[in-house]
Amino acid sequence: MTFGELRRLYLIIRVFLNYGLDELVPKTRLTLLFRLWRNCLFWMPNKHREQPLGERIRLAMEQLGPVWIKFGQMMSTRRDLFPPQIADQLAMLQDRVAPFDGVLAKKQIELSLGCPVETLFDDFDIKPLASASIAQVHTATLKENGQKVVIKVIRPDILPVIKADMKLIKRMARWVPRLLPDGRRLRPQEVVADYEKTLIDELNLLREAANAIQLRRNFDSSKMLYIPEIFSDYGSETMLVMERIYGIPISEVVTLEQHGVNMKLLAERGVQVFFTQVFRDSFFHADMHPGNIFVSYEHPEDPQYIGIDCGIVGSLNKEDKRYLAENFIAFFNRDYRKVAELHVDSGWVPPDTNVEDFEFAIRTVCEPIFEKPLAEISFGHVLLNLFNTARRFNMEVQPQLVLLQKTLLYVEGVGRQLYPQLDLWKTAKPFLEDWIKDQIGIPAIVRALKEKAPFWAEKLPELPELFYDSLRQHKHLQHSVDKLTNDLKGERVRQNKSRYLFGVGATLLLSGTAILLTRPDWVLISAGMIAAGVVSWLVGWQKTG
């Protein structure tokens, strides 16, 4: 490890111990060495004993920076895995991270704009409206049209912190295959590389603006999801200006209920929005923690989501979408044989996998979760069981699906908060069945023909020339094949002659030598035979060339 990595590792350990997070380690015989090591670090005492454990976890993650804050955001959606006093504190990482100085933010905005803020905006609020791991937002009004907007600005000097943490994590990922028996199957370096790319991409607000514009176009006039308008003329890599939205945070369930929101429909639409993004558009918001999701005040009986912070998006190729959809449907139909076969066909498990054993293992994990409301299903435990199944059958982690898996956890967490009785399977199954039919039926053929029609119309005049070129290339290829065949035949003839002459030469040499040893008076005959054998060898050697 480099000195910088060791220093960062030391800082992480110090922060964890200063906040007393070693309390999370269970006191068992297996952790005895760790606890003895902890007692030796007497100069790193718990400095926050008076604060609750949940608050200490949140403060430690805030101090360590964006990589850890993102991890805390994901954990905050899993209220089935953490007690309320921890989950409530982690939820504050979604949009209530300690802000940086508003004066510094204004200077950074002016540097990006190339002019004072007052030139283009009225009512700029130096106090941030919200603050998160990567950036914070300030409210303002556009001078040109009076539009209420928010200005998002990247935290200063954040890139070195992210790179330092990711460098350390990548180093640790290289150790995983050496330390764990099935570490190579987990593909930790590829997963970490994808996560690093995601974080670095999130620092470029021009990319976020483009993502938001794409999502807004995908859900134009949709009753399910609204994406705020982006004002691209004012944007840069470190600054984003977008329409200010007014909605109820998705995490404020009591407020939603008081406002008369149809919670069942809202939860169902959350599932529908997710599957629509993944399968219809192949472009999904991959940072759907509650801090980025609101519900419009309008039409509470017909609720509409509002999505912000589109810095992280994911996409799947056609093959992955097809396999995922068929896997989901097979799960819904409890066709575990189909699930096992799809995993083999997709290459996610080795081709020599015993399908019958794999089918039985999947049934053992998944059968108990059906016909239960969402409140009774712990996907955390299901994923753990599937992980153990994967380890038995050498299933490789698919880096391209990591964002999707994370988003599924977010969707489940939000659904659990909104409407615990939601039947996730019943909501998703019709959508996926319709999607599969659309992909393999007559509409899919017609759509493919329409998509390819301009290409074929362009290539049609070239077909005679292409056909002639193909025939000519075939003729040249046939000529080359015939020449190569003749050359190979000639080479075989030469090789056969060479082997024959080597055999004759060896026979003459051995015979001449034997005669010389048994009948010395026949010296001329033996010398002639030996000479003939040498000549035969030389001629055979020449034939090999």
TrEMBL record:
<dbReference type="InterPro" id="IPR004147">
    <property type="entry name" value="ABC1_dom"/>
</dbReference>
<dbReference type="GO" id="GO:0005886">
    <property type="term" value="C:plasma membrane"/>
</dbReference>
<keyword id="KW-0547">Nucleotide-binding</keyword>
<keyword id="KW-0418">Kinase</keyword>
<feature type="transmembrane region" description="Helical">
    <location>
        <begin position="500"/>
        <end position="517"/>
    </location>
</feature>
<dbReference type="InterPro" id="IPR011009">
    <property type="entry name" value="Kinase-like_dom_sf"/>
</dbReference>
<keyword id="KW-1133">Transmembrane helix</keyword>
<keyword id="KW-0472">Membrane</keyword>
<comment type="similarity">
    <text>Belongs to the protein kinase superfamily. ADCK protein kinase family.</text>
</comment>
<dbReference type="GO" id="GO:0005524">
    <property type="term" value="F:ATP binding"/>
</dbReference>
<keyword id="KW-0831">Ubiquinone biosynthesis</keyword>
<feature type="transmembrane region" description="Helical">
    <location>
        <begin position="523"/>
        <end position="541"/>
    </location>
</feature>
<dbReference type="GO" id="GO:0004672">
    <property type="term" value="F:protein kinase activity"/>
</dbReference>
<dbReference type="GO" id="GO:0010795">
    <property type="term" value="P:regulation of ubiquinone biosynthetic process"/>
</dbReference>
<feature type="binding site">
    <location>
        <position position="152"/>
    </location>
    <ligand>
        <name>ATP</name>
    </ligand>
</feature>
<keyword id="KW-0808">Transferase</keyword>
<dbReference type="Pfam" id="PF03109">
    <property type="entry name" value="ABC1"/>
</dbReference>
<dbReference type="GO" id="GO:0006744">
    <property type="term" value="P:ubiquinone biosynthetic process"/>
</dbReference>
<dbReference type="InterPro" id="IPR045308">
    <property type="entry name" value="UbiB_bact"/>
</dbReference>
<keyword id="KW-1003">Cell membrane</keyword>
<keyword id="KW-0997">Cell inner membrane</keyword>
<keyword id="KW-0812">Transmembrane</keyword>
<protein>
    <recommendedName>
        <fullName>Probable protein kinase UbiB</fullName>
        <ecNumber>2.7.-.-</ecNumber>
    </recommendedName>
</protein>
<comment type="function">
    <text>Is probably a protein kinase regulator of UbiI activity which is involved in aerobic coenzyme Q (ubiquinone) biosynthesis.</text>
</comment>
<feature type="active site" description="Proton acceptor">
    <location>
        <position position="287"/>
    </location>
</feature>
<dbReference type="InterPro" id="IPR050154">
    <property type="entry name" value="UbiB_kinase"/>
</dbReference>
<feature type="domain" description="ABC1 atypical kinase-like">
    <location>
        <begin position="93"/>
        <end position="343"/>
    </location>
</feature>
<dbReference type="InterPro" id="IPR010232">
    <property type="entry name" value="UbiB"/>
</dbReference>
<keyword id="KW-0067">ATP-binding</keyword>
<keyword id="KW-0830">Ubiquinone</keyword>
<comment type="similarity">
    <text>Belongs to the ABC1 family. UbiB subfamily.</text>
</comment>
<comment type="pathway">
    <text>Cofactor biosynthesis; ubiquinone biosynthesis [regulation].</text>
</comment>
<feature type="binding site">
    <location>
        <begin position="129"/>
        <end position="137"/>
    </location>
    <ligand>
        <name>ATP</name>
    </ligand>
</feature>
